[in-house]
Design a protein that fits this description.
CATH superfamily of the largest domain: HUPs
Oligomer: single chain
CATH class of the largest domain: Alpha Beta
Number of helices: 8
CATH topology of the largest domain: Rossmann fold
CATH architecture of the largest domain: 3-Layer(aba) Sandwich
Radius of gyration: 22 Å
C-alpha cells in the first residue's frame, strides 16, 4: 500500500485543530498498514507551520508560494491535482470544514477518485476503504465501503480523533508550484476576521451547555449563576441561538464551534449529532436530562436523569458548600 497524505489546514499562519486530528488518524492507519504518513502544506513563509508538523509525520511536502498564502480552492485544486497525479497516494485526508467541503468534491471528481465526506471512522482492509458516516440526521451510523481503486479521498469530521503527539522525524521537501498566478475566475480578495464575542467558549476549561430543556429565556439566569459558581461559561445548542437567547458565537456544533474543555455539562440538551460533533472532544462530559433515552447520554461520562430545575439548584448549593 502506498502512502497516506494529510492536507494541513491553516489560517493566518496558525494550524487549525482539525489538522492535528487528521494527523492522528493518518498515523494510526499508517501504523496498522505498514505505510508512511505524509503532510502536505500549501502556503507562504511556512517555516513555523513546518516546525510544528515535522515531528508528526514521516514526510512533509511543501508548496511555498505567495499565491498560496490564503486559501483559494481553485489554486489548491490545481496544485493538489498535480501532486496527487505525480505521487499517487493511497489515501488523501482533508478536514470536513468549510475549507475541505469547498475543495474535496471538486478535486476528487477531477481526478476520478472515489471519495466520501464527513467520516467518523476509517478502516483499511485488503486495500479497501471502509468508513463510518451518519445518515438520516444522525439516527444511523452506516459503514460504507468505497469501490476498489488505487487512490481514495476522504474528509474527516472534527472531533472524531482526539489529537495525540508523536516523535517522528520527517523528511522535508520543498516543491515548485505548478502555477504562478491565481485564475481570473476566482481570486482571494480580503481576509476579514469575525467579530469576537465577549466570551470565547473554545478557550474555556469549563463549559455549561444549554438546550431546549430550559424552556424559557427567563430561566437563563439560573444557568448563568450555576456556571459562575463553577468558574464556567455558558454555551448552547442551535435552538437557543435561533431563539436569540444567546449569540451565534456561543453555539456548539457542526454549524457552530468545536470545544475541548476539561469539563462539559450539557443541560437540557437531547444530543443531536450536529451538537455532539462540537463537544465530544471534552475530557469529561456530564449530561442532565429528564429523558433517559436522550442521545446525549451515549456520549456522557456521567448522567443525571431528572428535571434540571431540581438538579441545578442542588448542584450549585453543594458547590458553594465545598468552596
Amino acid at each position: 500500500m502506498s502512502e497516506i497524505f494529510v492536507l494541513i489546514e491553516h489560517r493566518q499562519e496558525e494550524i487549525r485543530d482539525i489538522s492535528f486530528e487528521l494527523l492522528t488518524c493518518g498515523r494510526k492507519l499508517a501504523e496498522e498498514n505498514s505505510s508512511k504518513l505524509t503532510a502536505v502544506i500549501l502556503g507562504f513563509n511556512t517555516e513555523k507551520i513546518v516546525e510544528k508538523i515535522k515531528s508528526e509525520v514521516h514526510r512533509v511536502l511543501i508548496y511555498d508560494n505567495e499565491i498560496l498564502k490564503e486559501f483559494n480552492s481553485e489554486t489548491y485544486q490545481i496544485v493538489l491535482s498535480y501532486l496527487i497525479a505525480k505521487e499517487n497516494p493511497f489515501l488523501f485526508l482533508i478536514g470536513h470544514t468549510a475549507f475541505g467541503m469547498d475543495l474535496c468534491p471538486a478535486l476528487a471528481t477531477q481526478l476520478k477518485i472515489p471519495f466520501t465526506t464527513d467520516c467518523l471512522n476509517i478502516e483499511i482492509s485488503d486495500n479497501k476503504i471502509k468508513v463510518v458516516r451518519q445518515m438520516f440526521d444522525g439516527k444511523l451510523d452506516a459503514k460504507v465501503i468505497l469501490r476498489e481503486n488505487p487512490s481514495y479521498m476522504l474528509t474527516l469530521r472534527a472531533g472524531s480523533f482526539p489529537a495525540t503527539e508523536s516523535n517522528l522525524e520527517a523528511e522535508v521537501s520543498n516543491l515548485d508550484s505548478p502555477i504562478s498566478e491565481e485564475p481570473d475566475y476566482r481570486k482571494f480578495i480580503e481576509y476579514i476576521e469575525a467579530v469576537a464575542g465577549d466570551v470565547d467558549i473554545t478557550k474555556s476549561d469549563i463549559v455549561v451547555g444549554i438546550g431546549r430543556g430550559i424552556k424559557e429565556q427567563d430561566n437563563m439566569t439560573l444557568i448563568e449563576d450555576f456556571a459562575a459558581s463553577i468558574g464556567g461559561v455558558v454555551a448552547c445548542s442551535r435552538p437557543i441561538v435561533d431563539s436569540d437567547w444567546l449569540p451565534k458565537d456561543r453555539q456548539i456544533g457542526s454549524s457552530g464551534k468545536v470545544i475541548k474543555p476539561k469539563l462539559y455539562i450539557a443541560i437540557g440538551i437531547s444530543g443531536a449529532f450536529q451538537h455532539i460533533a462540537g463537544m465530544k472532544g471534552a475530557e469529561t462530559i456530564v449530561a442532565i436530562n429528564r429523558d433517559a433515552n436522550a442521545p446525549i447520554f451515549n456520549e456522557a461520562d456521567y448522567g443525571i436523569v431528572d428535571d434540571l430545575f431540581k438538579v441545578i439548584p442542588i448542584l450549585k448549593e453543594k458547590i458553594l458548600e465545598m468552596k
